[in-house]
């Protein structure tokens, strides 16, 4: 009887996934998803990113990963949530981000100097503070050696900091970094391995780049 009461209390607080053997919450409740605002990505995710988990956006430079992140931040802010961005190398452009509809008044922007270790500490503090719907962590320009120097428990600690909460941690990098079991990896890549550019203009000497065609592939862990 005592065990049943304890598991009931854990389910009410949505902590039963890791602390209870029964875990009926996992079976009886649909995942709490948050749309990214990018239709093709949300379709691949089955509706959006799962709250309480670590997900990631990966792709080469100019693949559109920053645009997807900004759309996700804008979608969360439009829902009335507070959002945060840990900008490791100070690459974020508020003017460009505002064109995606991001309400900058709802954004906490933590500007780094390229020190990945300090950026990680800032990300952990923001996640532990709580109250954010989405926390982006941009590691795109962090040296690979710096990322490899992180202890293997780093991403587990990040996931535990938001487990059972309504926060989404969204990492961004050139290569896969980490995701929790319920998170997803959004891979941005050229279709069939070839970059296809779209141009506008009346002649070859007066053309403007309209965009690059890319494919979003979602790898889900749940």
Structure description:
By secondary structure, this protein is of the alpha/beta class. Helices cover 33% and strands 27% of the residues. The protein contains nine helices and eleven strands. The strands form three sheets. The chain has a seven-stranded mixed β-sheet, sandwiched between helices. Strands 1-2 form a two-stranded antiparallel sheet. A two-stranded antiparallel ribbon has the order 9-10. Helix 7 packs parallel to helix 9. It is globular, with a radius of gyration of 19 Å.
Helix and strand sequence: HHHEHEEHEHEHEHHEEEEE
Helix content: 25-40%
Approximate strand percentage: 25-35%
| Strand-pairing-aware structural class | alpha/beta
Count, helices:
9
Low-confidence parts: 17-28
The radius of gyration is 19 Å
Q: What is the CA–CA distance across the termini? A: 32 Å
Tell me, rounded to a whole number, the average pLDDT: 85
The main sheet comes to:
7 strands, mixed
Order of the strands making up the biggest sheet? 5-4-6-7-3-8-11
- Overall geometry comes to globular
Number of separate strands: 11
